[in-house]
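Quick review question:
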C-alpha cells in the first residue's frame, strides 16, 4: 500500500518529533524515579531514627511491671511464700537494672516475656503443692 501526497521530509520530521517526545517522557520518568528513590531513602532514614523513640521510658516500664505483678497477685490461689516473694520483688524493683538486663523495650510483650522469665520461679499455686 502506497501513501501518496505526503513528502518524505514531512514524514521524517513527524517521526523525529515522536522520538523527541518519547525521549522527553523517558527523561521525566527517570527523573521521577530518582526523586522517589531519594524520598524512599529519606523516609527509610526517618523510620530508622523514629524507632529509637518508640522505646518505653523507665516510668512506663515500672507501670507495666507493677501491673503485671499485681495481676499475678490478684489471680489468687498463690501460696503465702509466693505472695511474699512477688511482693518483695515489687517493693525492691530496680527499673534501671531491669531495662539494662532485659531491655530496651519497645512493646508490652517484650516486658511481659522478661517478667515471666524473672518471676516464673516465684509463682507457686496452692494446688500444686
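Suggested answer, residue by residue:
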Amino acid at each position: 500500500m502506497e501513501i501518496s501526497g505526503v513528502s518524505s521530509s514531512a514524514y521524517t520530521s513527524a517521526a523525529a518529533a515522536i522520538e523527541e517526545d518519547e525521549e522527553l517522557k523517558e527523561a521525566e520518568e527517570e527523573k521521577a524515579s530518582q526523586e522517589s528513590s531519594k524520598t524512599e531513602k529519606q523516609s527509610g532514614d526517618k523510620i530508622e531514627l523514629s524507632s529509637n523513640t518508640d522505646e518505653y521510658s523507665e516510668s512506663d516500664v515500672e507501670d507495666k511491671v507493677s501491673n503485671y505483678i499485681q495481676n499475678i497477685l490478684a489471680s489468687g490461689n498463690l501460696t503465702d511464700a509466693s505472695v511474699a516473694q512477688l511482693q518483695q520483688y515489687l517493693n525492691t524493683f530496680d527499673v534501671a537494672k531491669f531495662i539494662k538486663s532485659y531491655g530496651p523495650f519497645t512493646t508490652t510483650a517484650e516486658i511481659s516475656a522478661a517478667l515471666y522469665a524473672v518471676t516464673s520461679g516465684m509463682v507457686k499455686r496452692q494446688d500444686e503443692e
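Why it works: The helical segments are 8-52, 58-74, 80-91, 95-102, 108-119. Confidence is low (pLDDT under 50) at residues 46-52.
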